[in-house]
Here is the input.
Amino acid sequence: MDGHAAVRIRSGRLEAVRDSWYHPPMNAPLSAIPWNSPALWQAANASVLTLLRQNRTALGTARRSAGRLRYVLEQVFPIMENLCRQTCTACTDVCCRRAWVWIDFKDLLFLHLAGIPIPEAQLLRRQGDHCRYAGPHGCRLERIQRPFVCTWYVCPAQSHLLAKHPEGKQRLSSLLSQIKAQRRRMEDAFIRAVA
Ligand code: SF4
Ligand code: SF4
Here is the structure.
């Protein structure tokens, strides 16, 4: 926990919360997951859309920040694709079938600010469920639509591969740090604009 101030949407209003560098507790109850019902998901998205509409001009910095974030994320995707090609096809314990992760506020904000199609619902529906987007041939979301936790996760098999390529590992680590910082900048710019 790094103590960075962040926000979430609850009942259509912004609330300050403590943010963590995304270590979602695997035993978190469903109630701890934001917007975990169709109604809450719809309300959260409607709230963000309203704020974007009401603060269109003031949100220029946040939009540019989201654009920069998209650029850095897209540097990471080929690295992850390459790792997945070497590991996922033969995997017998697919991480998405047991992941207890979700779209957080920064993820949702990024999707809206960058004009990326919003997933139809939060990842999880029920306690003990697995991600609704995990299909027989992998994730049904485009990489750019997935929560950041799905981008940065490197499983043990992939970690083993990366260990053989220190330069590649260093580059990935640097890009992920940039993304983390850029997510904060985007959120901060958003808060300044709508406050
Ligand atoms: S990322 Fe790792 S754990 Fe997940 S499906 Fe691929 S090989 Fe399996
Ligand atoms: S969104 Fe996609 S990558 Fe993330 S847990 Fe769900 S299926 Fe896996």
Notes: DSSP finds six helices and four strands in the chain. Confidence is low (pLDDT under 50) at residues 1-6, 16-23. Strands lie at 5-10, 13-18, 134-135, 138-139. The two ends are 25 Å apart (CA to CA).
